[in-house]
Amino acid sequence: MGEPPTVSKASGWGQRLRGWLFGIFIMGSTLFGTLYLFIPFTPLIFFAPRAWRRYADYMNGLWHSMAAGTVRLLFGVKARVIGDRIDPNEMAIYIMNHRTSLDWFFFWNALYQQDPLLNQTEKIALKGIGKHCPGAGWAMQCNSFIFLDRNFEKDKEKIRRLIDYYVGIGNNYQLLLFPEGTDRCPISVESNERYAAKVGLKPYSYVLHPRTTGFTHIVQQMRKSGKLKAIYDVSVGYKDKIVQTETDIIFEGVAPKEVHFQIVRVPIDQLPHQDEEVAEWITKRWADKEEKLRRFYDTPRDQTFDNTPHGKEYELKPNAERWNNIAVATWAIATFSWMFGVLPFPMLSWFSFYGVLFYLIVTAVYGGVEFLVIERFRAWKASGDQKWDWDVVPRIFHRISEKLPLGLF
């Protein structure tokens, strides 16, 4: 049977209008959030860096869940999630095949269905160009994502600094990696096939050969802390259609109806310790994933991945769906009120201007908000004056967040 067709054109103007509304809302909400929900709290970076981290994780998790709810409501996208449960309280790595450039976006639906808190504890390693996208890039900087330039000599220092920060801040995060390095588009397929032929590897039909150097480095860096507990092997597949890029969903309004995820937990003690053996492990894992996806696409459309021995299928619970709808509505009201009703006021326009200036200056001077945060956190720890930030602000904020409905996230 093989993969379904790749769709990049709308079937009518109604579909395009939904895409335009989606694009305006998503971009507008990121600008609103980074300017009005983050900028007023940036003093915490200097005086209470742990409180900043908790607040930024909280707000980004709320936005991720809202974005997942938006594609569900606007396009009818349903995530089918099967396999092992992800523990938000353990440090882990997600490894996922990268079929389209939207996989990570739809993964937020899967995380929300398993446990809404997972959208707060996820970090992503992604292409460095995303850092410079107004609104979305600034939010990802505030969330301390890892931006990679695909030059290992340059990237390994960034990786080390961010992972040291994740460990030092004391929270347990799950880092999403795409070992293939890019999505499986025609250009990357051609390049990957040339590489496979050059080194004598078998060509793949459903995945790209993984880049072992970066994966091995990240695993070994996180292992040094002693906190890395597991790797979650995530397989993503599409049965009705494949939508390759963000522009297809924004400008044409095309989206898959179902996105299938299988999650397999691999305890970290099952991974070998030597670099060469870790590289062989991910290579073997990707060969197995190729066969897994072949079986997935050869089964009838209404069937999903095989379950794991102790796994289950995770549905969107009615209470979580209700609160997620409320979150989408709240963000929509706030965003469009700001865009069309509040922004024209001179005082708020100036506030927005200075907010944009802050992100541009910090990116130019420090390389991004994430590195300013790391520098201030290290200085704060070195000062020894940690009691206020450790004991008061995070505890108060945690108690407030506990009172809000879990499904809101």
UniProtKB/TrEMBL annotation:
Gene Ontology biological process terms, A to Z:
phosphatidylinositol acyl-chain remodeling
**Residue ranges of the TM segments:** 20-47, 326-345, 351-373
Q: Which residues form the Phospholipid/glycerol acyltransferase domain?
A: 92-216
UniProt xrefs under SMART domains: PlsC
Keyword entries, A-Z = Acyltransferase, Membrane, Transferase, Transmembrane, Transmembrane helix
The stretch of residues making up the signal peptide is none
GO CC entries: endoplasmic reticulum
What the entry lists under CDD domains is as follows:
LPLAT_LCLAT1-like (cd07990)
Give GO MF terms, alphabetically: acyltransferase activity
Under InterPro entries, the record lists: Acyltransf_C, Plipid/glycerol_acylTrfase
Q: According to the lineage, what is the superkingdom? A: Eukaryota
Q: Which family does it belong to?
A: Belongs to the 1-acyl-sn-glycerol-3-phosphate acyltransferase family.
Report what the protein is called: Phospholipid/glycerol acyltransferase domain-containing protein
Give the species.
Answer: Mesorhabditis belari
Recall the taxonomic lineage recorded for the source organism: Eukaryota, Metazoa, Ecdysozoa, Nematoda, Chromadorea
